[in-house]
Amino acid sequence: MSLTRIYGLFLRHFYLITRSLPRVLDLVYWPTIQITLWGFISNFFATHTTYYNNAVGVILTCAILYDFLFRTSIGFNMLFLEEIWSRNFTNLFIAPMKIGEILTSLVITALIRSLIGLVPAVLLTSPLFGISILDLGIFLFFLFLSLYIFGITLGILVSSGLLRFGPSFENIAWSTMFLLAPFGCIYYPIDILPEIFQKIAYALPLVYIFEEARNILINQTVNIENIYYAFGWNTLYFIVSIVLFYYSFNAAKNKGTLINMGE
Amino acid sequence: MKNLIEVKNIKKNYGKKAAVKGISFNVQEDEILGLLGPNGSGKTTTIGMLLGLLKPTSGQIFINNLKLEDNRIKILEMINFISPYIELPKKLTVKQNLYVYSRLYKVRNIKERIEYLSEKLRIGELLENITGELSSGQKNRVSLAKALINEPKVLLLDEPTASLDPEIGDFVRTFLEEYKKENKISILLASHNMNEVTRLCKSVLMMKNGEIVDKGKPEDLITKHGRNNLEEVFLKLSRSKNELN
After folding, report:
1. With contacts defined as CB-CB under 8 Å, which chain A residues touch B20?
2. Average model confidence (pLDDT) for chain A?
3. Which among A121, A139, A136, A122 is positioned nearest to A58, based on CA atoms?
4. What is the β-pairing status of strands B186-190 and B32-36?
5. Residue B90's closest CA among B134, B122, B58?
6. Spatial separation of the C-alpha atoms in residues A226 and A211, rounded to whole Å
């Protein structure tokens, strides 16, 4: 692994963000809108239902967590798509970069992009709704870390598809998170899902993360098992995504996708 | 003279379709070899395989005596590529792009290298400009600077002067001649500009339907086929049925 090359690829995207105010505003705009909207919905439910009346910020906290996951995953895909749209893809893959270096650089850049969007939105929640996500305590870090790993995993899986099938896979890149959201049990307990869907949900790290966030906020207790399960599934999916990325890279070299990308 | 590129019987099939059918050639140090052929003849596929973007179905490629299959990163450090079909990130300034690629190629004296290429390619005053806002001629010279940022031993050029006006085209060709002479690099030039090929290349390969149908010095090929120039030779070979030598 070469830090120089990882830094080089990071710079390519960093320059892109810092050169364009609309890009920065775009990163901040959607999380802020999303969280403001869910803040008002959260306030409404907190005053009109018994389930949430002891924890005003449950829905809003889950909205923030989900948004972080969404931004991380989409952010990773965006970095990959930027190379295709700018017809720079070939230049990148003929540079002497190892796959691990490309992935590491994109993983770091995706985190920074997500934080640029999320931090202002999180800071808004306190003055607007009197809620602080920091109420989750030290476990907030583990929940965020778990979501970050899963977001990156989804990003790598979609990028594998882009490598293997080319730009036509782009639509899938946008729809992945929407497909998984119902199974993630972001705003509701898993019992709401039909039994067959519960089985699918239990095979995703999301359900453990959001169940635990609600558990901490509503019951003021910590079920460490949920965090273990989340990390267990995350590890499995992350390894699968890396293997698939390497497989797709080799398949693309056989099929010729790398040389035709962007056309 | 040492061979910097050695291609040994490479084939590339896409399913049942053979894009390249077992071609072999060498490019020596300080040589420009022309790769000619009509569209679909296998030139881009061949270049793709030399860049490690495509895996040959069979055969071997050696760059500077290193087998490409086993030394991809080492080889990519010593080669580079320019094509009108690929671009540098449009929103970055020229300087930012050159700086990013200097990092990716682990260039040691980045500032000096960018200054040297800026002067040689006359892009000094463009360094702070947005790459996407440059004219074709300016973009071409910036792409060439990127392609030379790592002081490559091997340079692969796909239509390097396509869409350039005659003056800029001539500037690029003169630059390539001088740069090759000073740095003893090998260049594989794929071009449809026969005057350019005649001027720059010591020898040429004529490809058609994935095969090399003829090869030799431009003047020898013109004599051999009884034509007036390389363009007429190209047309004769392109229009004829497969004619293997």
Report:
1. none
2. 85
3. A136
4. parallel
5. B134
6. 8
- CA angle (B207 as vertex; B205, B211 as ends), nearest 5: 115
**Exposed (0-12), middle (13-18) or buried (19+): which is B57, by Cβ within 10 Å?**
middle
Q: Which of A24-28, A51-55, A168-172, A247-251 comes out lowest in average pLDDT?
A: A51-55
> What is d(CA A141, CA A57) in angstroms, rounded to the nearest whole number?
17
DSSP letters spanning A72-115? HHHHHHHHHHHHHHTT-HHHHHHSS--HHHHHHHHHHHHHHHHH
Of A8, A94, A97, the CB nearest to B53: A94
Q: Bin A222: left if φ > 0, else alpha if -120 < ψ < 50, else beta.
A: beta
For A201, residues 6+ apart whose C-beta sits below 8 A from its C-beta are: A183, A184, A185, A190, A193, A207
For residue B24, give both structure tokens: 């072999």
Q: How close A166 comes to chain B (CA, Å)?
A: 14
Residue A212 has pLDDT above 70, yes or no: yes
Which of B86, B101, B107, B131 should we substitute to test contact with A (largest number of A Cβ atoms within 10 Å)? B86
Q: How far is B12 from chain A (nearest CA, A)?
A: 9
**CATH architecture, range B1-78+153-245:** 3-Layer(aba) Sandwich (3.40)
* Cβ neighbours for B143, distance < 8 A, ≥ 6 positions apart: B82, B87, B88
Three-state secondary structure readout of A202-262: HCCHHHHHHHHHHHHHHHCCCCHHHHHHHHHHHHHHHHHHHHHHHHHHHHHHHHCHHHHCC
Within 8 A of A253 by CB-CB distance, chain B residues are: 52-55
H or E element: which one contains A41? helix A21-48
Helices first, then strands: H and E counts in chain B: 9, 10
In this prediction, residue B241 has a pLDDT band, given cuts at 50, 70 and 90, of low
Domain ranges of chain A: 3-260
Asked if A233 and A149 count as a contact pair (C-beta separation under 8 A), the reply is no
β-pairing, B203-208 vs B186-190, is: unpaired
- Domain map (residue ranges) of chain B: 1-78+153-245, 87-151
Whole-model pTM? 0.85
Measured between CB atoms, does B90 come within 8 Å of chain A? Answer: yes
The ipTM estimated for the assembled molecules is 0.86
CA distance A8 to B157: 24
Instruction: Return the pLDDT at B244.
Output: 46
